[in-house]
Write a structure and sequence with these properties.
Layout: H1 3-22, H2 26-32, E1 39-43, H3 50-66, E2 70-74, H4 81-88, E3 96-101, H5 102-111, E4 122-132, E5 134-137, H6 146-155, E6 160-164, H7 170-182, E7 186-190, H8 194-202, E8 208-211, H9 216-221, E9 225-229, E10 255-263, H10 268-282, H11 285-291, E11 296-298, H12 303-324
Parallel strand pairs: 1-2, 1-3, 6-7, 6-8
Antiparallel strand pairs: 3-10, 4-10, 4-11, 5-8, 5-9
Signal peptide: 1-24
Family: Belongs to the UPF0065 (bug) family.
InterPro entries: BUG, Bug_dom1
Length: 330
Amino acid sequence: MTNLTAQRSLGRRAAMSLAGMALASPATLRAQTPVSGPIRVVVPYSTGGTADLVTRSVGDRMSAALGVPVVPDYRPGANLMIGAQIAATAPPDGRTLFLGTGTSHSLNPLLRSNLPYRPEQLVPVIPLTENAYIIVVPPDSQARTLAEFVALARVQQGGMNFGTFGAGNINHLGMELLAQLSGITMNSVPYRIGVQSDVDLMAGRLDVLMTTLTILPHIRSGAVRALAVTTPQRYPLLPEVPTVAEQGYPGYDVRGWFSFFAPAGTSEQILARFNTEANAALRDPAVSAAFAPHGLTPLGGSAADLGAMIAAENARWGPIIQRLGLRDKV
């Protein structure tokens, strides 16, 4: 066989191999996947919100790549602790993921000495998204700026109510921090279903709410009024809304994130494969397009990147929680 013939033969074999990979059946994909059977993602929220969107957008693409179903398992309640405990005690067989946040892996451990799970029971897989929050008031509120809201709250010291996604959640801590910095006192009202807090704000049953960009259609329709963005930079979808920092509170920076975790003891091979496929999903332009209207920015990266994010959250919120005296108080 000549060199040219050999090269052509190798080229044909390579092409056939690539074609076979492209046309691989689900059974073939399962054989290449270190997990057999469906993979559940324990989601500590109800259906229909941003957590649902993130889980399905990434999970559906992972399912196609792995050849096995990736199915959300919604376990809301107790400030994410119900879902976290279920995932933390699941067998480390590669068939369970957990959609975690800064609340599940930083705030809950910092706030509570009697958690029903330990953060180290759930190991990092990949950071998925981050998002800003928006501080909004009812449309008939007298406050048109953050300064005006603070002035009203000082007059009604202790008389204003703000909604939260749960006691000790990120939007609870964010509002407590703002209250401390501005010298006001407010009452927190926890909600098990976040969208209900939006409804109550629009109806005037809440005075203020720190919420996600899912509120954007109501801002644009005039059903609520936006006062501030919680990140250091203005949000591209709301360029006219100033940040908290530029309204007199420099350094104020509150943001949320979603990430995948797995039960401790899950094999490195499985964790690496999950990371690879989730990263690929996050690079899909269709995923970015689905996230954008909800204020979600795709992240991606390594398990080590997620570990660093958690360490940064602990360093940020630990002193604040101690200063506010909130441990075992929420």
